From TrEMBL:
NCBIfam families: arg_catab_astC (TIGR03246), argD (TIGR00707), PRK01278.1 (NF002325), PRK05093.1 (NF003468), PRK12381.1 (NF009047). Binds 1 pyridoxal phosphate per subunit. This is Acetylornithine aminotransferase. Belongs to the class-III pyridoxal-phosphate-dependent aminotransferase family. ArgD subfamily. Its cofactor is pyridoxal 5'-phosphate. N(2)-acetyl-L-ornithine binds at R141, S280. It catalyses: N(2)-acetyl-L-ornithine + 2-oxoglutarate = N-acetyl-L-glutamate 5-semialdehyde + L-glutamate. It comes from Halomonas piscis. The modification N6-(pyridoxal phosphate)lysine is found at K252. The keyword Transcription does not apply. The lineage of its organism: Bacteria, Pseudomonadati, Pseudomonadota, Gammaproteobacteria, Oceanospirillales. InterPro entries: Ac/SucOrn_transaminase_bac, AcOrn/SuccOrn_fam, Aminotrans_3, Aminotrans_3_PPA_site, Class-III_PLP-dep_AT, PyrdxlP-dep_Trfase, PyrdxlP-dep_Trfase_major, PyrdxlP-dep_Trfase_small.
Length: 404
């Protein structure tokens, strides 16, 4: 006999590593979701910047249905047409010459870190193994990627972390310079820190990292898992800065909601990921590749990318208006449709308290740490949905202020 699952079933049957909200969404269309009781929400979370075209976008549904009737999966003993088309499209649209396909951002970053070390061994020797990352960075949940990430809370309690990992201060080039040496194999950086608080990189900082890597024979790795595929108003955020990495990772918006990831690299670097050095069972899966190609082709157009910038301005206008009335934010920042509102000193640590209030008002949002309210809606969210969603969010903030 079938029963309707409840939020309590999560606590009974699921591992306790998540704490989901009380409502269970069951249907989505565009930038709106409906829960089990038929209640509607405007979605400013987009699956944590994943649902780049909203829910059930026709272009993605058509790609999935068409491929689902043709071919679902092959092992990597074979290649397949959708994977080759996706790889070709990524190469043609970016600096890269080669692509490795996988199933998530964590996998993409794991592959990038392994490639960086392998390249250093191939070209310089095993002594060149140091990886420099940044405090408050986030690069995934594998043990290697959480160790490279600059938030110890994610790696503590699991035993000894991998060695050869150093951390510098984001947007502080001198702190990087002090750690650089001939044993540095790579610098790994987010062009805009996501989980670290939605902090865009200074242009001089990224250019300085490029120069340091060139000076010391190290690779520059851009983690664009969250910033990539139109999220910032360019296909990839590096294109804002005019600074080209050696390796770039992509996921989240790349599949528009279907699990897929990619690591992109130049020909020179990609050679080190030789036969048998790395793999992914579902990487290059025909279903994922077909959906990702449809998302990539739809997003990488002037209409969508210019629309991201227009929606950014509208969201910022709403946030600034709310702040003039309620004074809960000290800073509003971000690129494109990845925006953060830093809580003011009086409301420090209270960003997460907005989320359940917003849900009660019919809006879904995110946080980026305890002090930053994060908004990452669909890249094509209608302006009317922005207006209505921000009105609902403002009611939630009014309730927060009333609570004191």
């Amino acid at each position: 006999m079938s029963t309707t699952p409840t939020r309590q079933d999560f606590d009974q049957y699921m591992m306790p590593n998540y704490a989901p909200q009380s409502v269970i969404p069951v249907r989505g269309e565009g930038s709106r979701l409906w829960d089990q009781d038929g209640r509607e929400y405007i979605d400013f979370a987009a699956g944590i910047a994943v649902n780049a075209l909203g829910h059930c976008h026709p272009a993605l549904v058509n790609a999935l249905e068409s491929q689902g009737e043709t071919l679902w999966h092959l092992s990597n003993v074979f290649t397949n047409e959708p994977a080759l088309k996706l790889a070709k499209s990524l190469v043609e649209r970016t600096f890269a010459d080669k692509v490795f396909l996988c199933s998530s951002g964590g996998e993409a970053n794991e592959a990038a870190l392994k490639l960086a070390r392998r390249y250093a061994v191939d070209h310089h020797g095993e002594h060149k193994d140091k990886i420099i990352s940044f405090y408050q960075s986030f690069h995934g949940r594998t043990f290697f990627t959480v160790s490279v990430g600059g938030q110890p809370k994610y790696s503590q309690g699991f035993g000894p972390v991998p060695g050869g990992i150093l951390h510098a201060d984001y947007n502080d080039l001198e702190s990087v310079r002090r750690l650089m040496g001939d044993d540095t194999c790579a610098i790994v950086v987010e062009p805009m820190q996501g989980e670290g608080g939605l902090i865009p990189a200074d242009p001089d900082f990224l250019q300085g990292l490029r120069d340091l890597c060139d000076e010391h024979g190290a690779l520059l790795v851009f983690d664009e898992v969250q910033t990539g595929v139109g999220r910032t108003g360019k296909l990839y955020a590096y294109q804002h800065y005019g600074v080209t990495p050696d390796i770039l990772t992509s996921a989240k918006a790349l599949g528009g909601g279907f699990p897929v990831g990619a690591m992109l690299a130049t020909d020179e670097v990609a050679t080190s990921l030789g036969l048998g050095t790395h793999g992914s069972t579902y990487g290059g899966n025909p279903l994922a590749s077909s959906v990702a190609l449809a998302a990539l082709e739809f997003i990488d157009t002037p209409e969508v990318l210019e629309g991201v910038q227009e929606r950014h301005a509208l969201l910022r206008e709403h946030l600034e208006r709310i702040n003039r009335k309620h004074g809960v934010f000290s800073d509003i920042r971000g690129l494109g449709l990845l925006m953060g509102a830093q809580m003011s000193e009086a409301w420090a640590g209270r960003a997460k308290d907005i989320l359940p209030l917003a849900i009660e008002e019919g809006a879904m949002a995110l946080v980026a740490g305890p002090n930053v309210l994060r908004l990452a809606p669909s890249l094509v969210i209608p302006e009317a949905d922005i207006d209505e969603g921000m009105a609902r969010l403002e009611r939630a903030i009014e309730r927060l202020v009333a609570q004191g």
